[in-house]
Amino acid sequence: MSRSLGSPSSLKRKRPEKDPTGLVDAERAVLNVIKSKKDLGIWAGDIAKDTNLTVPVIQKSIKSLLTKKLIKEVVNIQNKGKKHYMAVEFEPSKEISGGEWYVNGNLDKEFINVLKQLCLRYMHRQKVATLEGVHNELKKSQVLKFPISSQQVGEILYSLVLDNEIIEVKSTGLGEYHSIPIGTVCYRVASGTGAGKGPRIGAFASIPCGACPRISLCTPDGVISPSTCVYYNKWLNIDF
Amino acid sequence: MVSPHGIQLAVHLISSFYGDLCSKVCECLLRRGTLTLALLIWYTELTKENVIDCLRVLIHQNCVQAFAIEQEGAFDEAPRIVTQYMALFRNIIHKYRAPKFMQIVSEELGNDCLEIFQGLIQHGRLSINQIIDRNEQTAGSSDVHVVRESLSRLLSARFIERCPAPEPFLAPPYEEETPAKRRAKSAKLAGEQTMEQRALAAAAPIDSMRFVMEREMDDISEEKGEESTNSMPLGEKRKQDVLRSDEDVLDANRKKEVLWRVNFEEFVCRLRHKGCTSCVKTRINDEAGIVLSAILELSRHSEAQQKVEKSDYLSINAIYDKVIKKEGGLGMDFDRIRSSLAQLGCQSITTGPHESYSIDINGIIEMAQIEEAESVVLRKYGREAYRIFRLLSKGGRALETYKIAETTFVEKDDILNRKEEKNGVQNQKKEKNGILKVLFSLWKDDYLHKENVTTSAAERSLFCLWKVKEALWEDVLDDMYHAALNLRLRIAHEQDQAKELLQLPREKIVGELEKKYKLLGRVRVILESSLMNLDDAIMLFNEF
Hints:
The complex is a heterodimer. Chain A is of the alpha+beta class. Chain A is built from nine helices and eight strands. A three-stranded antiparallel sheet of chain A has the order 1-3-2. In chain A, strand 4 and strand 5 form a beta hairpin. The termini of chain A are far apart. In chain B, strands 1-3-2-6 form a four-stranded mixed sheet, sandwiched between helices. Chain B: Keywords: DNA-directed RNA polymerase, Nucleus, Transcription.
């Protein structure tokens, strides 16, 4: 393979140019690509494709940009293993962060549980309440130091419905619904002994077979059988 | 179609009540469907005498029904009448429900009626003379009038009924010479019902005779004639001579007396109403339970079918009158009743001053079924799975993985796991605590149905839709039969283990033995009460 040699001056390695902000060319190119992705962020591998720079140069530029606090590292909920970068002026979009309930790519379970407890406590006091009622109560209570949207409260309430802690009903305008217009969706705790008071354990679930992970292997004369079942022994409190 | 563990449970019940030979015949009928005597002998490899004896026992215990059909002869031979035998799965399963039925009779009608009822539970079918004889043996002496009176009370409560015809003849679906319209109609009707259903309908005594006690004792000969005319559908008397083939063999010693048996339908109906009321009491409140109970009682008398999906439209005044007569309903006014009716989701019609309400009974039963399945999911897979299952069962449609995660507050998984999701594999080495772990465990155990959707070749476009499996209830019911069988086997095992102890005289059971004896009693109570509770759930899925 032949290669034409240029003048000695052209062989000399060019000193990277610096702009007034103190960024070299490569850094600027990387920053521009990252900025162009706005609140979606970009993976280092994709920066290489977009800028045609080599991976070591990109890594060096990223490191430098991070130190200069021009970009930040964000966790992409859909791909936690790949590091994503975003310009500091943007906040991660819902697709990247996972939504309001996620912090650094992890579900903020503690916060969710606190909100659930607050809503539930209010519901037990009120018996019947609308979404607006619960939302207003949370705003008034001043327990939360930051604003919470009505949609977030709705999500929390629906999660309580799924937990069978409360029931979603339509107001009939009668009895305990007297203050709520007829047909309005509202939530209530049950005055019965079952629904709206947490999950009930049914007859099948209360015997060992209902929760047995080996039920498909259990036969009358097999290795796993009701006569020799360890779960039964534990349940019936029989010592062998 | 009976599920595999349902058959196993039925066979176990027959085996423990009537022995292994009967259980072999019964298993053959349950697994292979309706069979002739010759085929039963062939499949069971038993002698003809044994099979006939077993069939006699099983028919007497209402576990098998015989019926005759006309079979076309081969090679231009004349058609011949063949007797078929079919197993009555539900009646077999009712065997272990006897304590529940007896409790209802005892509470409602007292001990005299219970005594007769017990005899029918034990012996399957009895004539009035046999009932009197049995009463004499058990009670020492028996007053015929008291027995007849008790029998009459049992009949008016519909707890017992006249036995069905021993071997009804099933006419071919239609005759060639009938007019085209009738032919089309009868063909349509025949298409709706299986041969077994037609046989049961043909065997059932006509409604006017089903719960009526005749003067059998006074005139047996008159009774004889009456039974032959009442128990056979019209137009079939002429075929009696050909029908007698198997019937003669099976019922050689049978006197032509009216036989009585337990009417399971009535008990199932009562337990259905009881189940609905208790479900509403726990889900809504006691007042709604009282109102529902009143509605069910009011519509009970007009229930032509056993399982009505919706109650009749009942006026608010009638409901009020019934409610105030019920325990705890005295203080209720119209407004409170209306509020309860609204909470129950009743449909209402208002014409002028009259307002009527109807309730969706099936809706309540479905709600109870879902609750039962949900509690299994909670116990087996945890709270997150419970929430996911409830979301999918409430929505009744397929949802995407991330949508499920967002709504139920379960950790989302990243793209690597989503690739596995598409391939339907789970990497055991890689620990996953997110939504996929939960969804996969539910999917693996057949609770959920999974569907992959690809919108383009890019990785981001892999989607997975999840929904509750359509035939889930059949699987849950089969698991319940399995659990009921296991409970019964464990009861038998415990009895067997303590056989020697149980044979000892009571005064010799002291010290360590007494401890063991008490433990055995406690274990038996736990197992038997669990079996009865589990049976309530089984009835919810199978009978209601």
